[in-house]
Amino acid sequence: xxxxxxxxxxxxxxxxxxxxxxxxxxxxxxxxxxxxxxxxxxxxxxxxxxxxxxxxxxxxxxxxxxxxxxxxxxxxxxxxxxxxxxxxxxxxxxxxxxxxxxxxxxxxxxxxxxxxxxxxxxxxxxxxxxxxxxxxxxxxxxxxxxxxxxxxxxxxxxxxxxxxxxxxxxxxxxxxxxxxxxxxxxxxxxxxxxxxxxxxxxxxxxxxxxxxxxxxxxxxxxxxxxxxxxxxxxxxxxxxxxxxxxxxxxxxxxxxxxxxxxxxxxxxxxxxxxxxxxxxxxxxxxxxxxxxxxxxxxxxxxxxxxxxxxxxxxxxxxxxxxxxxxxxxxxxxxxxxxxxxxxxxxxxxxxxxxxx
Amino acid sequence: xxxxxxxxxxxxxxxxxxxxxxxxxxxxxxxxxxxxxxxxxxxxxxxxxxxxxxxxxxxxxxxxxxxxxxxxxxxxxxxxxxxxxxxxxxxxxxxxxxxxxxxxxxxxxxxxxxxxxxxxxxxxxxxxxxxxxxxxxxxxxxxxxxxxxxxxxxxxxxxxxxxxxxxxxxxxxxxxxxxxxxxxxxxxxxxxxxxxxxxxxxxxxxxxxxxxxxxxxxxxxxxxxxxxxxxxxxxxxxxxxxxxxxxxxxxxxxxxxxxxxxxxxxxxxxxxxxxxxxxxxxxxxxxxxxxxxxxxxxxxxxxxxxxxxxxxxxxxxxxxxxxxxxxxxxxxxxxxxxxxxxxxxxxxxxxxxxxx
Lengths: 356, 356
Ligand SMILES: CC(C)[C@H](C(=O)O)[C@@H](O)C(=O)O
Ligand SMILES: CC(C)[C@H](C(=O)O)[C@@H](O)C(=O)O
Hints:
- 2 copies of one chain form a homodimer.
- Chain A has helices spanning 14-32, 45-51, 57-64, 88-99, 122-125, 163-178, 194-207, 220-229, 241-250, 252-255, 292-304, 309-324, 345-355, and strands at 2-10, 35-40, 68-73, 103-109, 129-135, 147-149, 154-162, 183-188, 214-219, 236-239, 264-266, 271-273, 327-328, 341-342.
- With 356 residues, chain A is of the alpha/beta class.
- The first copy, chain A, folds into 2 domains: 1-105 and 257-356, 3-Layer(aba) Sandwich (Isopropylmalate Dehydrogenase), CATH 3.40.718; 119-255, Isopropylmalate Dehydrogenase.
- In chain A, strands 2-1-3-12-11-4-5-10-8-9 form a 10-stranded mixed beta sheet, with helices on both faces.
- In chain A, helix 1 (14-32) crosses helix 11.
- Chain A starts with a strand and ends with a helix.
- The mean pLDDT of chain A is 96.
- The interface between A and B is large, with 58 and 58 residues.
- Strand 7 of chain A pairs antiparallel with strand 7 of chain B.
- Chains A, B: It is an enzyme of class 1 (oxidoreductase).
């Protein structure tokens, strides 16, 4: 198996966590006799500083020639005063759009070993295994017109969806649910928004092709509550772009830390893989960052771009083992108990490597 | 003290909970020698059924002649297939707009007696006292253009804000914070949305007039997580319309049930008071509805429309006493313990009355 991976480490803790993720991928390649090659590229704040653009053409060209893109994190407070299209985040949105992946998969899993890291009661998080399918190329993120007029002191953004954009992401959700617990929960605000009415009607239509999968609709406000009260009720959660951004971060509290959460964006020319966490500039370089989100993202590369399901599971199992053995980066040390060992980013990476 | 209150009970559990709230207001009037009069009006699904319109002119005219409007809940599954402007919810949005209140105050408080009803650990919710200030007349709820074109299979909604709309609601947040714990957390998505950039710049500008109040900005996705992880960190939380809808429902898990949450909308011609919960058609008429959200909403009428702070506190204290004594409607009986007594909507209302 050969795989060419573009590594866009980005800002803040991006480089340190992607470094641990590529180490794991190298280990998997060695163990399995695969050939994984890595191509580095600039994105985000570091790209602005070095080239003036948050997504240099060289980066995009390189990414488009790879089989998968692993992105660390983008965002740097230095650029807070700039308009959205000049910020590090613009590089992220541009590459998402250019690669064309529209279905962003975000698993939210409760690890038994981490039950003390969650603000939720252990009996609430027990056995939770949710998969968010977030539409990633539509809605307020990309809708036009969009402007902030500094003369009239007015600003607008546009939430826009077409039926086709909804159909294709809904199909991904139903396909995945049919291999899981046969349930899709679609999130919208259909009691207020026309876009949500189109969303609900379209998802309902798509559901007819999947008679074995149960479809339920939830309003985004109720869902923000239900997902904390009874997370076990949910299997696949299908959302538009911004609702998925909010709810999947919220669901991070089920696992206990954003630092644990991986994501994969599929459906386009090249799949894009990113841990859910941000660039966390405050802890960059301190060794406090949790590399497990990036490592679990590497496992998603194995699953969705290399078709190496066994190896993906092996990495996930290794992560579980290391957690069970009590090793903790700072973000997951909340309920620190006897038997736990605090470790750095690098130590955590090495432990997973050994457990493999 | 004289007060004329329009009571728009609405759909589902609306009538049964507002009935308990007006009973409490009557009791307060009697005890204090005040004269409260009540005028009833139709709104929502029941208004559609009886008059064809979710907000009949008669209702609006009556409301505009009152000192305060107490709204129960609107929403009925019967009308789910209708477009947003024909649904029960349209009546709610129309009356919000017509009354002109732009600042929707939603307290989210952890009651010690209810700590077992929350999915969050007691040490996380302990002493939490958050006040959401949600902008209620702008953003995606009212922005034009808005349509669902059934030919092109496309739909759009518009998120729109002007500087003035942001200034006025920000002032309310800072005023309230200056009487509380001196902190405002403003929520936006300024790394992606132009509207949020205007929001952030404007709130920052307004904050200069309140040097004793600390302002912090949070992205809506991070906030959805922080508010579960460290709710104690927040005092006043200022949001645009949809973000406030989502986050204030989410924060309902701090108290343990939406059924406990009151709201007041101020700044317009007539203040509008509504419990946060919906019409819950599934439990309407079963005596399961929790009237405390409506009763605490009545306390907000006393505070914000009658300037009867003492009486408002007395009602809140009575609610606390009844909870401390172990009385529970179904929604707050989660961690049911020895010493708890299940009660109906009506019994709960009577108990608060007695405790007064
Ligand atoms: C950094 C930001 C633009 C991004 C988003 O909002 O999509 C992030 O929050 C995410 O969820 O990946
Ligand atoms: C019923 C609905 C239109 C309403 C809203 O979204 O504002 C409700 O969710 C609320 O929060 O008061």
